[in-house]
Design goal:
Layout: H1 2-24, E1 28-32, E2 35-39, E3 44-51, E4 58-64, H2 77-84, E5 98-100, E6 110-112, E7 121-129, E8 135-137, E9 142-147, E10 150-152, E11 156-158, E12 163-168, E13 179-183, E14 186-187, E15 197-200, E16 209-215, E17 225-241, E18 246-247, E19 252-261, E20 265-270, E21 273-277, E22 280-283, E23 292-300, E24 303-306, E25 310-312, E26 314-325, E27 331-332, E28 337-346, E29 350-355, E30 358-362, E31 365-368, E32 377-385, E33 388-391, E34 395-397, E35 399-412, E36 420-429, E37 433-438, E38 446-447, E39 450-453, E40 458-465, E41 468-471, E42 475-476, H3 477-489
Parallel strand pairs: 2-9, 11-17, 18-26, 27-35
Antiparallel strand pairs: 1-3, 3-6, 4-7, 5-6, 7-8, 7-9, 10-12, 12-15, 13-14, 13-16, 16-17, 17-19, 19-22, 20-21, 20-23, 23-24, 23-25, 26-28, 28-31, 29-30, 29-32, 32-33, 32-34, 35-36, 36-39, 37-38, 37-40, 40-41, 40-42
């Protein structure tokens, strides 16, 4: 009897405990996965399921970033719920990006779009039933870490080296990642990445540029990192300004261009002689002395390169105009003679020849074959180009020849009644020596330009120099003298 009473008192308690245990076993929230690493600006799916005992009706479901409730004084239960467990769908920072994909039965999945590093947090699902105080929060939550991408690369590499670029994130991305690489904002299609790395084998100078990475299917692109490729100078060349004709007195600039990394040091040379350093070589008031071949040498720590030679040609008017006569010795009638005109000018000058002001012809050479005494005289050449003209000094052409045109003239003498004076004239170079002869006598009867004949007879003179001799016709002195006396006395 006692046992029955005791059993009657214990049964409701045992039954109550059994119901409580069954009911408690039905409350649960599961997250899969519980940790998510997402790329900045991507969309994140937080998979979630929940269970609750039968007999309850779900009144409200929402996600929050709070797990524990604190005590709020002077607040209604609804106000306290909202303040302590804020609904992210009503938060301005989340409302336009948060989409609830679940239901009020068992699915509590959400999508969060355009995530940023500020979204890195732990998130919880909470649901409220129709029974008083029966509310449940999935305490384990979902941990979201939002990462960006960073390219890790050496600042500089040398041409020919191999280089590896790595696309790094602060956490291991949850989604299966396929990386895309860009150089100067253009996708690299010719090279394939290995996991999150880009391998550039035997790097070239064309590989220099701004590199960034991204994930396939995502809009976010990492900040660009500049890869600098070091290489020796190439394509070294010289340019001249002004590019047209350069005239003596102009200012001229020579510029050296070179493709190199790091920038090269420049040295200047004229026909092997060092001139100076720097990318620019200036010449003010240029003279003809600067004409010649110029080169620049481009050098950095990786090597050096010479430019091709460029010719600097300075234009100027003629100067140093000189006439030269072939054969510095004596010129004898019948010789062939060449007169040459030399002139310093750029461009080469046109040459004109003049004898004592009379134009003779053109050309650097003036030739005379079988020269005669008529060619003796002063010769000049005139040198002319578009920048000016210049005359040479006069050069004298002195033609040597034997005596010719030898003749005798006679005139009465006032000193003696029957004496006459004979004069001998001749044309020769050098001047001839004169000898006088009486016909039928082998020896000379006198010398010099004049000869006094004191007796009658036939006389002649002979002119001679080192080139030859010539005698005059004979004149009769007697006949001439008598006729003169008769005329004077008559």
């Amino acid at each position: 009897m006692v046992m029955s009473v005791r059993m009657a008192l214990l049964l409701p308690l045992i039954f109550s405990l059994m119901i409580h245990r069954v009911s408690s076993a039905g409350w649960a929230v599961n997250y899969s996965p519980s940790h998510i690493c997402a790329l900045k600006d991507s969309s994140v799916i937080m998979n979630c399921t929940y269970t609750y005992p039968t007999g309850y009706q779900i009144m409200k479901v929402f996600w929050t970033k709070k797990l524990f409730k604190g005590k709020k004084k002077d607040s209604s239960e609804e106000e306290e719920e909202h303040e302590v467990f804020p609904d992210l769908s009503k938060d301005p920072e989340y409302s336009h990006r948060l989409q609830y994909l679940g239901d009020k039965q068992k699915n509590c999945t959400i999508r969060l779009s355009h995530v940023t590093q500020k979204d890195s947090h732990k998130y919880y699902f909470r649901f409220i039933t129709d029974k008083h105080s029966k509310k449940q929060t999935g305490a384990s939550g979902v941990t979201l870490t939002v990462t960006d991408l960073q390219v890790e690369a050496p600042e500089r590499v040398t041409e020919g080296d191999s280089v590896r670029l790595t696309c790094k994130s602060s956490c291991a991305l949850t989604d299966r990642a396929t990386f895309i690489w860009y150089r100067n904002s253009q996708p690299l299609t010719e090279r394939r990445d290995r996991n999150n790395q880009l391998l550039l084998q035997s790097v070239r100078r064309e590989d220099a540029g701004r590199y960034s990475c991204a994930l396939h299917g995502h809009t976010y692109i990492s900040p660009a990192v500049y890869l600098s490729v070091m290489y020796p100078p190439k394509n070294t060349s010289v340019s001249i300004s002004p590019s047209g004709e350069i005239v003596e007195g102009d200012s001229v600039t020579l510029s050296c261009s070179s493709d190199s990394n790091p920038p090269a040091e420049i040295s200047w040379f004229k026909e092997g002689t060092f001139l100076g350093s720097g990318r620019i070589y200036n010449i003010s008031k240029i003279s003809s002395d600067y004409s010649g071949e110029y080169k620049c040498k481009s050098r950095n720590k990786h090597g050096e390169k010479d430019s091709d030679a460029v010719m600097l040609s300075v234009m100027y008017a003629p100067r140093n105009v000189v006439v030269s006569i072939t054969g510095s010795g004596e010129i004898v009638e019948g010789d062939s003679v060449t007169l040459s005109c030399s002139s310093d000018s750029n461009p080469p000058a046109e040459i004109s020849w003049f004898k004592e002001g009379t134009f003779l012809g053109s050309g650097r050479i003036y030739s005379i074959s079988k020269i005669s005494s008529d060619y003796s005289g002063e010769y000049k050449c005139k040198s002319r180009n578009k920048h000016g003209e210049k005359d040479s000094d006069a050069a004298t052409l002195n033609v040597m020849y034997s005596p010719k045109n030898v003749s005798v003239s006679i005139s009465p003498s006032g000193e003696k009644e029957y004496s006459v004076t004979l004069s001998c004239s001749s044309d020769s170079n050098p001047p001839a020596e004169i000898s006088w002869f009486k016909e039928n006598q082998s020896s000379a009867v006198g010398s010099g330009q004049s000869f006094s004949a004191l007796q009658s007879g036939r006389f002649y003179c002979e002119a001679h120099n080192q080139h030859g001799s010539q005698r005059s016709d004979a004149v009769t002195v007697f006949d001439y003298a008598v006729s003169q006396i008769r005329c004077d006395g008559g």
